[in-house]
Design goal:
Length: 104
């Protein structure tokens, strides 16, 4: 259904998966990204994390690009390895620190 709209960026928070999970970001025709949770994010096995972890996404949009950054509210800093840019043409290459490569 979204194939006709290649500039769609789809956000989902339903799974509560933490931003460090390897498949939190997926791009094919569209971009799909999980937004974690400000309360009770889960690990990649869908088990709630212990402690007071709080995460969300910060989105910046202009006429040239969409930038998606992860935010760790509990640590009051940006989340490591969660910084994606989607341009009108394609995703700009950025190093994904979790996977150690430039293929996002």
């Amino acid at each position: 259904m979204l194939a006709k709209y290649p500039k769609v960026v789809y956000f989902s928070g339903h799974t509560h998966l933490q931003l460090s999970c390897p498949n939190i970001y997926y791009e094919e025709i569209n971009v799909f990204i999980g937004s974690s949770s400000v309360r009770n994010p889960f690990d990649q096995e869908s088990v709630p994390l212990s402690g007071s972890i709080s995460e969300s996404l910060f989105i910046e949009v202009d006429d040239q690009q969409v930038r998606i950054r992860g935010r760790r509210h509990d640590l009051r800093r940006w989340a490591d390895g969660v910084d994606f840019i989607r341009t009108a043409e394609r995703l700009a290459p950025r190093i994904d620190r979790r996977r150690g490569n430039e293929q996002l």
